[in-house]
Amino acid sequence: MKGIKFSENVTRIDTSGIRKIFEAAGSDAINLGLGQPDFDTPEHIKAAAIKAINEGFTGYTVGTGIPELREALSTKFREENGFSVSPEEIIVTSGASEGLTIALAALLNPGDEVLISNPGFVSYNALTEILNGKAVSVPLAEDLTMKPGTVLEKITPKTRAIVLNSPSNPTGAVASRADIKALAEIADDHNITIISDEVYEYFIYEGEHVSPASYSDNVITVNATSKSYAMTGWRLGYVAARKDYIDQMLKVHQYIQACANSIAQKAAYAAVTGPKDSVNAMREEFRKRRDVLVKGLSELGMECAPPKGAFYAFPKVSNSTEIASKMISNGIIVVPGTAFGSEGEGYIRISYAASMKDIERALSIMEKVL
Ligand SMILES: Cc1ncc(COP(=O)(O)O)c(C=O)c1O
């Protein structure tokens, strides 16, 4: 038998814990494990894609993305996020996932450190490790947000980046303006880059969305149409940053991706420039489900502060794996907090990107089994 010598960085990382849970659950289980809106892509967005196909817009586009989309995103950042980037300071990517990849690839030399919230979205650690960096975990405060003081304690001469994710997956927490401003100041003072993952920006129920790029230009803003417009399968994202960042990220993008999907780019243009009714309707529906879920969980004796954003509740439990396994064996898919890092012990993630009927059914099963 031939023994292939694989990359140590890759063999060391584990496959996604969330995927394993889906595989373990029965096919008729109630799925509260999903990380995507349970809505269809709005009609006007689909129509733009169909038009693009019919018009033969099916070749490679310019690597950075079609000019009208970058123009529209530049306007979006100015009007909604409070910072200025020109279309030349934007790259259209294959989802936020590619945006995170090219940001980290542009920044990291072997052994460079990236500060990542623990618990945090699963890709941050894995991508850092794949790209030869070292993931340094930043424990969260009681309100499940990343605090500037804790970040300061973790900074070393090797720190290159801080990954910020507000609203957060898996906690649903939303960082305050004061904390974002303080983190931006830390980035400036220490010449560290903030990689700001803002994919849940439109799903905020209390508080406000603040982009760190409105306070510092040491920021790579990563976003996508994936969650905002129920377009996860279209694989369309974007990054915005100062030109020196863009120049390096563009090289990685060109060689790993060439360009984002041409049809999805036309669809994204329709999404970004079109009516926001469907986004607002999704947010209001998520808010209703969140309220029912949080009330139900507290009636079951689970401590769960109402999440301010995204579509995840992160209640406290006695033992993550035990409670998650119990729920899964009773037909409710949830994710143990430990899938998002060691500090996720004592929590489970429950997604409310599921119908009200499923949430209510799940609550009544939980009442019986817990
Ligand atoms: C916080 C966060 N960032 C990025 C992504 C990936 O987004 P995309 O599907 O656009 O690659 C996800 C998906 O679950 C996410 O939760």
From TrEMBL:
**Official protein name in the record:** Biosynthetic Aromatic amino acid aminotransferase alpha / Aspartate aminotransferase
Cofactor(s) the protein needs: pyridoxal 5'-phosphate
| BP GO annotations | amino acid metabolic process
The organism that produces this protein has a lineage beginning with: Archaea, Methanobacteriati, Methanobacteriota, Stenosarchaea group, Methanomicrobia
What EC number(s) would the UniProt record show?
Answer: 2.6.1.1, 2.6.1.57
Occurrences of domain Aminotransferase class I/classII large (ranges): 28-363
Subunit and interaction comment: Homodimer.
Q: CDD domains annotated for this entry?
A: AAT_like (cd00609)
| InterPro entries associated with the record | Aminotransferase_I/II_large, AspAT/PAT-like, PyrdxlP-dep_Trfase, PyrdxlP-dep_Trfase_major, PyrdxlP-dep_Trfase_small
Keyword terms: Aminotransferase, Pyridoxal phosphate, Transferase
* Gene3D superfamilies per the UniProt record, alphabetical: Aspartate Aminotransferase, domain 1, Type I PLP-dependent aspartate aminotransferase-like (Major domain)
Q: Which family does the entry's similarity section mention?
A: Belongs to the class-I pyridoxal-phosphate-dependent aminotransferase family.
Has the keyword Transferase been applied to this entry? yes
Gene Ontology MF, one: L-aspartate:2-oxoglutarate aminotransferase activity
Work out whether the entry's keyword set contains rRNA-binding. no
